[in-house]
Design brief:
Membrane topology: Peripheral membrane protein
Number of helices: 3
Pfam families: COG7
Largest sheet: 2 strands, antiparallel
Protein name: Conserved oligomeric Golgi complex subunit 7
Order of helices and strands: HHHEE
Radius of gyration: 50 Å
Subcellular location: Golgi apparatus membrane
Keywords: Golgi apparatus, Membrane, Protein transport, Transport
């Protein structure tokens, strides 16, 4: 006969119902008293096995407590060390962030000056081109070559339209 221990862990376990069910499950030819003695002996043996297992597991757990305590202390120390390291890194980041912001602002100013200088250079290049074109136009008009003068004026017009939009230099 097998004893099912699963029903003992049920919150609504009823000992009387369990005993009555165990008695009804016996072989009809087995005397009830013999069946109950057998059932009692199996329950007692299982109880002793469970108690021995609990005692063994408790002893093993007690042996693990000092090691677990050491591990907890080590983890606490590691946590403090890590917290201090992170605080140091955060401080360095804040310092770097401040100097980075200043560096970025300076770079932005330098970039603005550079763009303005490039624009001024291009304007000067265009002015030099216009000066050269103007002297060329004077030479062409002086020579009396009208088709070449018309072509030169068309080039000058294209250059002026590109350079001046809405009264402003492009």
């Amino acid at each position: 006969m097998m004893v099912d221990l699963a029903s003992f862990s049920d919150e609504k376990f009823d000992a009387k119902k369990w005993i009555n069910a165990a008695c009804q499950a016996r072989h009809p030819q087995d005397p009830l008293e013999h069946h109950l003695v057998d059932l009692e002996m199996k329950l007692q043996m299982m109880s002793e096995e469970i108690a021995a297992s609990l005692e063994e597991q408790s002893a093993a757990a007690l042996l693990r407590v000092p090691r677990a305590t050491r591990d907890v202390v080590r983890l606490r120390d590691d946590t403090h060390s890590l917290r201090n390291s992170v605080a140091g890194i955060l401080l360095k980041l804040k310092k770097a962030e401040g100097s980075s912001a200043e560096s970025i602002a300076t770079l932005a100013k330098v970039d603005t000056v550079k763009r303005r200088m490039e624009a001024a250079y291009e304007t000067l290049q265009d002015a030099a081109g216009l000066t050269q074109l103007s002297s060329t136009v004077e030479g062409v008009f002086a020579s009396g070559d009208l088709p070449r003068a018309a072509e030169t004026l068309a080039n000058m017009r294209t250059l002026l339209v590109c350079c001046w939009r809405g009264g402003r230099i492009c």
